[in-house]
Amino acid sequence: MDPKVVSLPADNSDVFENANTITKWMLSQPEDTHAQLAEALFEKLLGEASQSRQYHGNGHACVKLCSFVQQCSKSSDSAVRQWAFTESLSKELFHFYLEWYEHDAHRALRLVLDVLVASSTSNPNPEAGRLVKDHITETVVSIVARKYSQQLTKSGLQCLDHFLSKKVISLSDVALKYKELEQAVAEAPDLLLWRSFAFHLFSWMELTYVCPLAGKNLVHIFRGLNAAAQTLDAPDSAGFTLELWREWLQDALTQNSAILEDIKNYVLAPIFKTDRDVSLKLLQMFNRSRPLTGIDHDMTDQGLLLQLATLELGKKHGLVEEPSHGDSVPQQSAGKTVVLQGSLLDSLLAHPSVSVRSSAFSLLVSSQATTKPFSEVAFSLLKSHIAAFHADYDAKVRNEVLGHTKNLIKRLKNIITVAHRSLSSQHQQSTEGEARQPAKKKFGPEVALKNAAEAKEVRDRHEAFLVWYKDFLMNELLPTASYQRHITALRASILLLKVGKHAGATDDTVDEDIAQTISYDFTWIRLLLDLLLDPFDDVRDSAATLLSLLSPNTTEDARTHGLLKVLREFCTQASKLSDRTGRADHSDGAARSQGLLCTWLGDQDSQIAVLSDILERVESKISKAEEDLGHAAIENPVHADFAAISYVWQVLAKETYSDDQLDGIHHLQRRIFFCARQIWLTVKHVLCDDSPEGHLPEELEDIEGLDTKDLLSYSFRAVHESSNLLRLLVGMLRMKKAPGVPFPPLDVFRETGFLTFEQLASLRHRGAFSTVSYTFMNCCQLTQNIRNIYSELDVSENLLREWYQGSLNCIMTQASTTRRSAGIPSLIAAVLSANAASPSFDEVYGTLETIGKKPVRMSETDGSNLPQVHALNSLREIFRSSLLSKRAEGYLARTLHLAATNLKSEVWAIRNCGESKASIESGWDGHSIRISYNKYPTLPGVILSLLRSADETLDQASQSGAAEAVFPALDIIRRAGPPQEHRAELQKHIEGYLGSRLWHVREIAARTLCSFLLQGDWASKIGRLLAESETSTNQVHGALLTARFVVERKADLGVDFRADSTSIGVLLDQLTQRQRLFSNCPELQAAYLEILNLLTNYGFYEQVAKAVSAEATTVRSGSYSALLDLHASLKLIYDTAAIEDVELLRTHVLNNRDVNTTGRMLETIPEAWKRADNTKIQSGLCRLYLDICATSSAPEIRAQALTNLGSLIDGDINPMLSCAIIEASGTIMAALVSLGSDKHRQHIRHPSRSRPLPLLLLYHHPLTTTPNPSYLPVFSALYTALIDDDDEVRDTAATAASALLGTPSIAPTAANALVPWLTARFASNDEFRARVVCRMTGQPYSPNLTTSLSAEKMLHHALDFDDSSSQPKNKTWLGLAEGDEAMRTLRGGWRRVAGDDQAWEGESG
């Protein structure tokens, strides 16, 4: 019976309610129609499921479909049952699954896989089941191997995982299909085949959404191969070992290092969770692996990262114990866990690679639980290496270390708490006389310690380390320590205070024991107070935060005077210092100290009194400024006091107050506003001048010591801090109304808004109106909330509408004194940020658009009053604002059209605004694409209309303006690609711009046209452009630019040109046909040669040589062009490289007299000649570079030649070659010693100091045994470089020191290791002793120590205070500017040299 004749019930029938009703109805029909009905019903249900997939349905249709097929497979009707297992049905379901799951991984699709599993394994027709399985296997394997026509990676990998898990298909089935699909491995051994297949899976891990699935399949492969390798009759996996698996993982990481975390989480973690024995074997293998022990070792960083990641994962799964040495391995751990090797971690913690070093630290502190004790070896490693981590110049490393430090502190405190609890419990049991047998000890991280002796030993060990760690942090805060050490120690100290003592504790409370320890140690307090005046803002902020967490010691005694008294004295001194220097860091430190004082005071009245005292001081200073601004700017800066009020107010705002206190606070708030207004009126004439940077009023010119910088700094900082203070006051209105909250009075809020409006409307100082605009924006936003706070506010009063009308008045009346309209755009943006119903976004945009559209002619204006400029700049600000840009996206097409229209204006100021605004909308930043044609359906039409209007203007006089008008449109197409709508017409218009008489127009048109030519037969399309443009030189030039940009773009996209050699041949044929035309114009010939050079560089020299005649590449006499000469010279570089003719290259380079051309040639030679690696050619290139150095007088030419020479000899160097290079470089070595000396080092710029350092790499290779004392100057230079302030210098010196010491390490570790290395070899040498003493005392080296300055004079000089710095004038006394950890090492080394074991006096603090 024909299935088409079978009739089905209506769609709304109850028959289709579910699979049961459908099957019941089908079986009720005549028996001979069951199979046809089943087929028809299946097609209907499959169509509904496909439609549901298209519209992201809930999966009900899919459930109904699969349930129907399953019921048919169990039907009593043999015809229906046979139909349910047919091959065609299974294939349809399989491809339905692939397409749906790829885009929507609905859980209902699992039913499809169940149907397919049944069809493959339980099919009554075994042949049909085998065909289904083969088809599924072939499809998923081809998907993994990238042989499938569609990219269905996620669904294919999910299907493969499911069928392997259900054992429907085996690894042998996969291998067989892979051999058929991948001919390259058809004859390869089985392990090579599996390596190839596994690396396909590794490559798919680049896609985050398929990482877990790829990992699951890799686990299947590992388990299958590993299990088969244990079986003697498994030849397909013979030779598979854990070491081989490790090599696969490491090689995969070498190809793509970004998948390390994915391998760790999705490949290794499942193995560790389910197979402990295999996991232990893997971990033992990784734990045995030795780290990189020499600079020539072949183990890569990726291998070390894999090693560390695996061990850390094992540690978190309880399979790896704390580090120890071989003799201290716990017996109970033998065979059950893997114990980390301390020597392994010791070398990795000092590894030069940042990633390796950080991973090693993470491994050291990580644990399965926070109550697992540290070993003594772990503490020893932390003590040895944590200082280097704190001093690391890479902020990312320091932040990672702080994250691990938090875990370290949490473990320390939790373990100490568990040990105390265990001891208390045992003590209580013993005092109660409970007789009990000693329980068998349980092992596990969460079990409290039961043995008293062990609990005491664990407690004492961890408490001792905690004490050491606190002392270490305190020493890191010394004034002579670096910024890196300061900020890391401060943040670690905050963690030490805030991390709780219990496993479930939060970080909201302060550890009172730690706080008390720091509070009673006045060394801590003094160091922290000093850091309040540090030059770095984050150091000051962290120090203030740390001090605010401490409970003040209010006791007064003869020894301490109490913390509050010390803080009050510090506040007084800091304020005096701030007034004297006026420095921003001193002012901020003084202000923070006042906020800290307010925090430490116990009662609210005392805190309010602090605010009142500061306010009186501010009022006094403002009165002086009103009388004599010049002297006030020098002697009485007010910004520190305004900032102090801000910090005090932040403390007061957290509390609630009585009515009497609120009255006093409201009075203080009005006084604060009055001070802010008065200082504004005092300095307004300075900041509102059209050129405030160079403005000094005549009445102030005679004041001694006052210049424009001082006056401007005083004025800006005063307005800046006062505006910040007002923003804090009105910011209270964001809180919910509650009794006792210190809201500002309504008049203060209202007047603050009008004051900031006035400031924005008149300011000309960019820094000032940036601050004020933020305050005004807050006022605008708060207008939507103030009626909830102020019930007395009149219903008719609309402050936001008033400010909007005032902004429009500024647009229409203010002169255009600045390109960006000063503060007017900020006024508009602030009004819109309120997101109010009136004025609405649409209303504001429409008004600005209307103003911006008004035409203006040069004859009608002098350019001083252009509302259009203010309106366009306001629109530009809307698109730039992070708060408004999202809402502005709907107006993008209109704004783009407006910008393009204004680009054709006669008035330059309007054109400039249009260009700036268009650059914002079209994403001209070069980093992002903000255009989606689907999101803006009208945009293609707008782009087309812009191109049309510009075409109509091309014949007019304003061609340049018309061309500028299309730049936004062209740039959108270039970045976002061409829209499908109007594609052909857009391409036609863009091709027209290839013939523009303006070079930059042709260039951007050619770049835009690339997006049209990347697909299909691009070479023929370029040939068409060349054929259509032979009558126009500009058009030909544009076509050549297009050809070059297409080739470059394809190369950037990773296109394999070897696979597209046919297109390259077509392009060369098209160019060859027009060689004579190109030779008539120097610019055309230059563009032509540039294409040839590009193709030659990509490996098409033979094709280029065959297609190009010598005449076409010859520069004609009389038609000199610098551009042509350059590309002709580069062409000769590539030609000589292809034929390996060094003499011809030598002749051409040496005879070239143009510096720029010669420089480009030298830059190109290494790339062009990289394939020529025989000794004869390299010798010829070396002689060429040396001759250039001898004959050229241009420094840049000689520098490039030496760079090329260095790259030639930067390879495998044996000791003989190394010594020969050193012998030939005697003058350089002399310069190196001179540059490294203390006398000259501080006056030498970084490039001069870093250039000799690579020679140290060569110099120290043979000097690993007993160096001669004559090398001491070089060793001194090396040590100086290791503690240099430039990371490049330090890194290069660390590499040299690593070669010398035999162990790779970072600069701080290398510096610490170099001192004992030198001491062991030169302890008895007088020169060495003299150098140590001179370095310790910070003096230039002198063999005669009697000529050195006395300690008394040096100390007096060091304490000589300079007002320009918060530190002594000479911070380098005793050499501490070079790093005091190095000095501590030197002191220890010198004590060993001198035989003095006594500690230096005062060394501890």
Task: Describe what you observe in this structure.
This protein has 1405 residues and is mainly α. It contains 66 helices and two strands. It has a two-stranded parallel ribbon. The model is unreliable at 291-298, 327-332, 439-446, 915-930, 1219-1224, 1226-1252, 1257-1264 and 1364-1405 (pLDDT under 50).
How much is the average pLDDT? 80
Number of helices: 66
Shape: globular
Task: Output the strand order for the largest sheet.
Answer: 1-2
Largest beta-sheet details: 2 strands, parallel
Write down how many β-strands occur, each being a DSSP E stretch of 2 or more residues: 2
Distance between the termini: 101 Å
Show unreliable segments. 291-298, 327-332, 439-446, 915-930, 1219-1224, 1226-1252, 1257-1264, 1364-1405
Give the amount of beta strand, in percent.
Answer: under 5%
Structural class: mainly alpha
Give the radius of gyration: 39 Å
Specify the helix fraction band.
55-70%
